[in-house]
Design goal:
CATH architecture of the largest domain: 3-Layer(aba) Sandwich
Largest sheet: 3 strands, parallel
Strand content: under 5%
Helix content: 40-55%
Number of domains: 2
Distance between the termini: 45 Å
Structural class: mainly alpha
Radius of gyration: 23 Å
């Protein structure tokens, strides 16, 4: 589907956007937005903007799409960033019979995995880090584990879920079990959801989300290796960061798991 959004900058906007691009310090997402708007104002097509800047169509549309017909042709304001939805109760409506499978892994190794893929894409601006080009392993880790960060939000949502009224409908599947004994892991899942087991081929697994990862600016984030195996790797995180998050696997603490949530 071909989508076109007409952009006409005012004289003041035409003066400030090129100045922003020519020097000074500005947030990466603001610079990208200015690049898109200036290019569109000069008549560059949406396709050319996306290809030249190696941005995805969704980002282009976010910056150029007018809020409504009244604002067509006007500069669309930046949209607020929206994080993942907060966990909701499973006791209402269609979710009354729902069950949830949560994949868990030691926090330092989760951070390690994200850091590794980030370093493999050194010249990409990742949406995970708000397109910030100047981060370090410390700032990236801080952002990931913050209250609204990709890791921190999931971590903080799972803890109260294990003490909720629906805790008996939650299964925690550890990374270690899945990679070391995938057949056992899948059998436990089928048992949990009351379905007959299926004979999976764990040596020929195929999955990737290339388009989604490209939109994030993090190619390879969801690429799965063909065979389910334990990958032995050297640590990338500095020792102090590793120590900071070591021992945060609350699902392994019987004193915390007082409701007996099933952990595989």
């Amino acid at each position: 589907m071909n989508i076109r959004y007409r952009v006409e900058l005012s004289e003041a906007e035409r003066a400030t956007r090129p100045a922003m691009l020519s020097g000074g310090k500005h947030a990466a997402h603001k610079i990208k937005r200015a690049q898109i708007l200036v290019a569109a104002d000069t008549g560059v097509s949406d396709e050319a903007i996306s290809l030249a800047g190696q941005t995805v169509r969704s980002i282009t549309e976010t910056q150029l799409k007018p809020r409504d017909e009244h604002h067509a042709g006007r500069l669309a304001p930046p949209r607020p960033r929206v994080g993942a939805a907060a966990p909701r109760s499973l006791s209402h409506g269609r979710t009354q019979q729902a069950k949830m499978i949560c994949c868990v892994r030691d926090v330092p190794w989760v951070l390690e995995s994200i850091e590794r893929i980030t370093r493999e894409n050194t010249f990409e601006l990742s949406r995970i880090f708000d397109f910030d080009p100047g981060g370090t392993v410390y700032s990236r880790t801080g952002g990931l584990t913050a209250r609204g960060g990709m890791v921190g939000q999931a971590y903080n949502a799972l803890k109260p879920a294990m003490h909720s009224a629906e805790s008996n409908r939650i299964l925690l599947l550890t990374y270690e079990t899945l990679t070391r004994d995938p057949a056992f892991a899948m059998h436990a899942i089928y048992d949990f959801v009351s379905l007959p087991p299926f004979d999976h081929d764990f040596d020929h697994v195929s999955f990737n989300a290339a388009e989604f990862d490209a939109r994030l600016g993090t190619p390879g984030l969801h690429t799965v290796r063909p065979a389910v195996r334990v990958a032995e790797r050297d640590k990338l995180l500095p020792p102090d960061l590793w120590r900071r998050f070591e021992g945060e696997s609350f699902w392994q603490d019987t004193g915390f798991n007082t409701k007996g949530v099933r952990v595989v």
